[in-house]
């Protein structure tokens, strides 16, 4: 069996200005199922992001995904790269870039059809069914505070 090409993704963890709440999207899994994509374990809530398109840098892909999925316009200076995860082994190699930022909690959000709703959640009371762990969110918040390493 031939190896699939490497998936390159870019996601952003969006915090409110006080960094006490995180913005999460409730993904439209019915649409994903129709596209042949599935997630196991009751995953529902996730950060903004997706695939980096050909010719884009991860940062450009992240800004595009934020605009498409939420209507928010971010500039490169708004985003701090907080982690890169990479696995080039196996049948599904990937590199995923994670960014963090903070925005005004009252910013106007315009969802596309990839999500059914969104919410702002206190870090102490996150919803069940999250793609990323609470530990990751806390780590990314700390890296947002201290800047890139």
Number of domains: 1
> Kindly state the mean pLDDT as a whole number?
88
Overall geometry comes to globular
Could you state the order of secondary-structure elements as H and E? Answer: EEHEEHEEEH
Tell me which CATH architecture applies here.
Answer: Alpha-Beta Complex
CATH topology, by name, is: Nucleoside Triphosphate Pyrophosphohydrolase
- CATH level 1 name: Alpha Beta
Distinct helical segment count: 3
Amino-to-carboxy terminus distance: 39 Å
The radius of gyration is 15 Å
Report on the biggest sheet.
7 strands, mixed
Description:
This protein has 149 residues and is an alpha+beta fold. It has one domain: Nucleoside Triphosphate Pyrophosphohydrolase (Alpha-Beta Complex). The protein contains 3 helices and 7 strands; from the N terminus they run ββαββαβββα. Strands 1, 2, 3, 4, 5, 6 and 7 form a 7-stranded mixed β-sheet that branches. The mean pLDDT is 88.
């Amino acid at each position: 069996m031939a190896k699939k090409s490497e998936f390159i993704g870019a996601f952003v963890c969006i915090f409110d200005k006080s960094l006490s709440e995180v913005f999460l999207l409730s993904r439209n899994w019915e649409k994903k199922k129709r596209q042949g994509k599935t997630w196991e374990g009751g995953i529902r809530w996730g950060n903004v992001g997706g695939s980096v398109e050909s010719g884009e840098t991860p940062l450009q892909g992240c800004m595009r995904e934020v605009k498409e999925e939420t209507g928010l316009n971010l500039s490169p200076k708004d985003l701090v790269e907080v982690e890169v995860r990479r696995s080039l082994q196996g049948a599904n190699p990937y590199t995923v870039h994670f960014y963090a930022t903070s925005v005004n909690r009252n910013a106007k959000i315009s969802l596309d059809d990839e999500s059914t709703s969104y919410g702002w959640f206190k870090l102490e009371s996150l919803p069940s069914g999250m793609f990323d762990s609470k530990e990751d969110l806390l780590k990314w918040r700390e890296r947002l505070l201290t800047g890139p390493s």
